[in-house]
Queue: 3 jobs
Job 1
Amino acid sequence: MPSVFSHAAVPLALTCIAGLRLIPPRLAVLAVACAALPDADVIGYHLGVSLGAPLGHRGITHSFAFAACVAAAGAALLARRLGARPAIVAAVLLASTASHGLLDTLTDGGHGVALLLPFSSERFFAPWRPIHVSPLDASRFFSERGLRIVASELRWIWLPAAVLGVGGALVRRALGARGGPKQPGPSPSPSRAASRRAGGRAVFTGARDRR
Ligand SMILES: [Zn+2]
């Protein structure tokens, strides 16, 4: 696995791209937790569960089916408390949880990832695996090998996530600024904040009309 911290890069990038109006802070925090959740299966590793078993490391908790269950449960039970629409909660939690298994397929060690459990027990690796695998035993992380792992995660996870997140945020803001003047303001002399709110509606309406 990439270290548990690096899985947070995906939900954080998503939040930067979509913005806090679509993904409120509480949903972003939950998405970060869900991105790390699949590695809860290391508990089984320490209890002696076989690595190749469905409940073993990179087993059922790393599957798309597990991500779908997490997303459905989050949308059904927490959408109101999170202050977001159930569909948004489901999409964000699905992407964040499923991204964990996909990132694990890019690592250069360990077992393959059972992405398709419970329908298939096949273990998958990506054809290109640039990320150094992180040890299951956390104490081995603090070594020269640990520094190499951090360097590979910065290069292959955090850097692309930062580029996508910042780039997406800039595009979103540019689209919002461009859509602003097309909407009539709420009063003859709208405040700057009111203009910005009107701009947000203009972009959303325009996007819907183009479909
Ligand atoms: Zn993992």
Job 2
Amino acid sequence: MLGYSELKVALDKLRDHRMWNLFEDKTNAAIVISSQLLRCPLHKDEDLMANQYYYNSLGIGQKEILSIEASREEKFVAEFNRHAVEYGCRQVDTTVPSIECCKDIIEQIASQGIFESIQRMAGEQSSRAIEIANELKENGYYLMKGVISDIECEEILRDIERIARQEREGGYAYLYGNKQLSQRIYHLVMKSECANRLLKMDIVKAVADSYFTRQTNHDLYYLTSWHANILNSGAAAQKVHIDENVPEPIPEWPIRLNVNFILQDYTEQNGATHIYPGTNKLLMQPKHLADYKAIVLAASRGSIAFWTGKVWHNSGENRTSSPRFALLAGYCNSIMRELVAEEDNIKYAFKSNSIEKVDRELMPLLAAQHGLKDYRYD
Ligand SMILES: O=C(O)CCC(=O)C(=O)O
Ligand SMILES: [Fe+2]
């Protein structure tokens, strides 16, 4: 039987499955398949929020969900199970809506083996993701090789180079470090469509799901930063640090996870990230560095490096003549965001009521400028 995190992976798979477009009634298809995968706990009230999340992730709207929830009736069970038996599907022990519409769906599911194949894929992927999340909790980092194709690395790298150039030439680049030799490109989500594809990778989502997993009806995490860190030739090594900058002791529960998509070979010479394995368990800021050993995250392009916000690390020195690019996605536990003035979604309030209308005195309190690291979004 699958749990919710596997269901989420399964439904992500479902959307990409060749069968998905064949379902005319996608809402009911999602419900039938979810019910089958979870052996149908979907009817429980406390699961409603989770259900909505999954349906929404399949592009099914709120209005439809509510009408479905309202239309759940005991009498459908028998009907559903009658068809299920007929087509060799699993029977369910609770209500499933609109059984008449589901008849075709059940038939399609049965004839194409869609249920089994999705369940298998979801199971394989989620056990790998769980292994990676366990490694992350043990050593603080995990390196996965050969995940992004050469063509994709090349395309994204060219796009990042283009944006970096554009921002330097436009005079609004975010430059920092010794002689301003390093550059960050923030807000990639609005700047590079091809880079955004990386955020949608199944394995990345599954690892983040496993790392942040806990009993909750809320989202598990959000993207807190999506940016490129470029070390030009001669850029010095970064100070060793952790990415969870909260007072010590650093909590044991996950606050932050970093994912570095490696688009070019990462070497000792060009400034590959250094990691101090196991220091994530110390739950403290870096101290007495000489007592600990760092490894260099040397990796071929197409790899993905994960590290937790608790592990000591830094970017290395770039001693080559070409720039080193890191493409960094930072994921943050959703509760941090909810606590930080996001119980209301203040950013959306800004968007829908023109920012000019907001009391200027309240601007700093509302963090109106927070996170705007170049001139483009002033
Ligand atoms: O670019 C890198 O190698 C690491 C960057 C980093 O750790 C950071 O910016 O917090
Ligand atoms: Fe860092």
Job 3
Amino acid sequence: MNSKQEVKKLAFSCPVCARITDREISKLKEGATIVCEFCGLKLNLHGHMLESVNAQIADLTDEKTIADEPA
Ligand SMILES: [Zn+2]
């Protein structure tokens, strides 16, 4: 059914203003900077925030094979 590559998105809630934005999961990697478009927060993705994001990504992708990424 899905012959095209699907862009997976994660609903990310800002820890400061709590607004939710959809983020492409391919961009949610360690060291990535997430900028909240509502309050302007710049968040560096690491530590427990990264773990939380990875857990949510795993929930989104658990039924599918994660696409191979080019090395
Ligand atoms: Zn915010």
